[in-house]
Amino acid sequence: xxxxxxxxxxxxxxxxxxxxxxxxxxxxxxxxxxxxxxxxxxxxxxxxxxxxxxxxxxxxxxxxxxxxxxxxxxxxxxxxxxxxxxxxxxxxxxxxxxxxxxxxxxxxxxxxxxxxxxxxxxxxxxxxxxxxxxxxxxxxxxxxxxxxxxxxxxxxxxxxxxxxxxxxxxxxxxxxxxxxxxxxxxxxxxxxxxxxxxxxxxxxxxxxxxxxxxxxxxxxxxxxxxxxxxxxxxxxxxxxxxxxxxxxxxxxxxxxxxxxxxxxxxxxxxxxxxxxxxxxxxxxxxxxxxxxxxxxxxxxxxxxxxxxxxxxxxxxxxxxxxxx
Length: 324
Fold this sequence. Notes:
Elements lengths: L2 H8 L30 H9 L3 E3 L4 H16 L11 E7 L4 H17 L6 E4 L15 H14 L5 E7 L2 E2 L2 E6 L3 E5 L1 H11 L4 E6 L6 H5 L4 E5 L18 H9 L7 H18 L8 E4 L4 H7 L22
Parallel strand pairs: 2-3, 2-4, 4-8, 8-9
Antiparallel strand pairs: 1-7, 5-6, 6-7, 9-10
Helix pairs in contact: 4-8, 5-6, 8-9
């Protein structure tokens, strides 16, 4: 494994893109990730397995406002409907680069509509590049709180639909909020959180480099896992001024806007990404798809009445191949 490539993806500097206004600049990454620099692969894996995160230089006013944002989001999650297979949608941008904030917001909207999850969806994300975020931040702690709340609300027949977007590394997905929030979540950590709160039916989609590491860690008879890459490959399109990563554009913005079964949508997205990578002469990312043998009942219920197609939004991720 080339650790330098992994760190280059994780430490990619934030660039202010055309979506930002003249008066607002999203948080920038100007200092190294303190949980990554100088650590061995084993140390990084151990930190990610425990969900280690640190916050620094947060004002007390910010911390109070953040608690209130999270409280509002948790309070807005509706209860299950007995006898109905309900989807609970969670979309998370774990990095403050604006591409992830834009992608998580639109993924939340697409997935909420697709799975009839109005009143049962949460988006955790930083800025979309145009203004400071009014949402709870995408952090390991906030994700844990949301999953705990869902564990109390969801029935055994209900399904978690989780979409995460961020930079990634061989040890998992990275939390990096400007120069103030740092951390990581490994497959072991995410599996442990889901097990603790008793969420067994789950559709998990992970947009990040090396995200294929989550497939063996999360795969189960009742899980569907779709990742942007294999465990040893980078994914593409994560420049801060993009509207979408390659994976987000192909899977969420195009395939899942249409009434396609998830297996078909994921396969179609994989084909689109492969074509874009060939055009850009990029090393194939090899997105992964894992569908558990006992997912058919809840997939049939969620996909029985998918809504009509909608048009993609934002600039296609493919445009990043020709950007100056």
